[in-house]
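cron nightly-structures :: item 1 of 1
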Amino acid sequence: MASILETRSVTKKFGGFTAVDNVSLSVEPGEIRFIIGPNGAGKSTFFKLVIGIHSPNTGTILYKGQNIEKLKLHERINLGMGVKFQAPSVFSELTVLQNLSLANNRKDSLKVNDLLNDFSLEKEKNNLAGDLSHGKKQWLDIALSTISKPDLVFLDEPTAGLSLDETKLTGEIVKNLNKQGITFVVVGHDMDFVKQTASKVSLLHLGKMFIEGSVDQVLSDKGVNDIYLGLS
């Protein structure tokens, strides 16, 4: 099966500092791929490289076989990508329903009512997005990134600031959307969320790819705890 996303020997330097060092990664359609690692591992920089905020110094980024490393973020979104940043980026002065309606720009997009129910937002659909709790803003933001049913969605720390119950529900939501045909690449460090949701994990360390595999393979690796205390 052809990869939906592939990076080949991608490197990003800031002055004399190498943030991402020769990273190659291949994501197959249908995966929920997690990118994890300790602080300073290069996760955020790698995320910004694949969505188009940063450009690599060297290496290639392919989406469905197309070279995209010179495309801007909006151009990548137009190819069928969705992006949710760590901080919710909802339109605070619009209602929940208005937010979803704005993002609903494809004929085969997900149904608004289904999303409202899935994300427990039905009762707040006519409320201003700015009045939502932090957790529900996170859910609305995930809904906005997925409503057009992109083939690939990037989520950056989607459970940041959520309670344990909210985190568990987020995992169920992501798995349900995955069953509907959306591939996910998730940057995160919440190991309960990783264990619940991931189909494959890639761990970065000091800007390099340290290990890839299933959750069990990564968590049972003898070297992982040495670089990522508290992972297991």
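cron nightly-structures :: done
Residues 32 and 51 are 17 Å apart (CA to CA).
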